[in-house]
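User: Could you go from structure to sequence for me? I need the amino acid at each position, not a summary. Structure tokens:
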């Protein structure tokens, strides 16, 4: 395994210092992290690239159809990329595009920089936001901290977690990140199967968005929440008296699957291993 460089060590020490602020005596950190950098920073980078393409296209020509088409597509991509700054930048770009199309003088070329200004602002805010976010799992709590101007902090006792849901659309699976939803006894939890992208919640539970390797994080929570439960169940002896034990293990295995603590594939694999010993 490659050793961590000075930058990696410094980052780890900085995260540990931030974590220590929220720990109580006897509490230990089992995992800490942030949203996936590719998501948070990537949006600002994409907005900036689309804004540059918009500027270059209109500097080439404000009358030829190809540069105008490129500028228009760049505005649409800004809107799709980010629902806040991207929306503003894209709409501003379209307004500028229309103004130049109907004959705005070249002395107003400085207006082309407006979408770029919003894109750079988005990138700056996202960088600051990423530095403020902290997701942490201890032996006692799930801790969440985020915010730029106003700090938002939430904690959830491990013992109160009743359901853990991971939502990972296809494009998030490709990039290796997803959203994790920790539901308590007072929350609905789970997934609306008619609308898979919707997390069912009634307020107050904890949602971690854009987490890298979300299933590894869920596994870590399960190890703490169910310290006596092992997914690798022992082989069943073939004695007649083990039938009740087998049924109990199958029930526990089904319960783990129902609560979302193991995947369907893991459930089927362990169930087959148990049944082979009959």
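Assistant: Here is the amino acid at each position, in order:
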């Amino acid at each position: 395994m490659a050793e961590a460089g000075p930058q990696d060590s410094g980052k780890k020490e900085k995260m540990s210092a931030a974590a220590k602020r929220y720990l109580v005596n006897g509490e230990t950190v089992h995992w800490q992290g942030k949203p996936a950098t590719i998501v948070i920073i990537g949006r600002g980078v994409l907005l900036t690239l689309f804004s540059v393409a918009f500027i270059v296209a209109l500097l080439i020509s404000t009358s030829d159809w190809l540069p105008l088409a490129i500028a228009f597509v760049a505005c649409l991509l800004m809107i799709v990329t980010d629902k806040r700054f991207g929306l503003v930048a894209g709409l501003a770009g379209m307004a500028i595009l229309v103004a130049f199309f109907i004959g705005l003088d070249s002395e107003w070329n400085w207006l082309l920089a407006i979408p770029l200004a919003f894109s750079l602002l988005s990138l700056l805010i996202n960088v600051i936001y990423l530095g403020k976010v902290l997701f942490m799992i201890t032996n006692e709590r799930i801790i969440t901290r985020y915010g730029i101007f106003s700090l938002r902090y939430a904690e959830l006792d491990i013992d109160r977690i009743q359901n853990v849901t991971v939502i990972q659309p296809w494009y998030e699976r490709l990039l290796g990140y997803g959203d994790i939803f920790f539901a308590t006894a007072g929350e609905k939890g789970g997934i609306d199967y008619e609308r898979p992208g919707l997390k069912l919640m009634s307020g107050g539970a904890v949602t971690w968005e854009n987490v890298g390797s979300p299933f590894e994080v869920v596994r870590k929570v399960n190890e703490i929440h169910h310290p006596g439960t092992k997914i690798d169940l022992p082989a069943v002896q073939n004695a007649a008296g083990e039938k009740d034990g087998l049924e109990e293990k199958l029930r526990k295995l089904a319960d783990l699957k129902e609560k979302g603590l193991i995947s369907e594939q893991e459930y089927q694999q362990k169930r087959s291993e148990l049944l082979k010993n009959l």
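One structural detail worth keeping in mind: The chain has three domains: 40-128, 134-225, 240-276.
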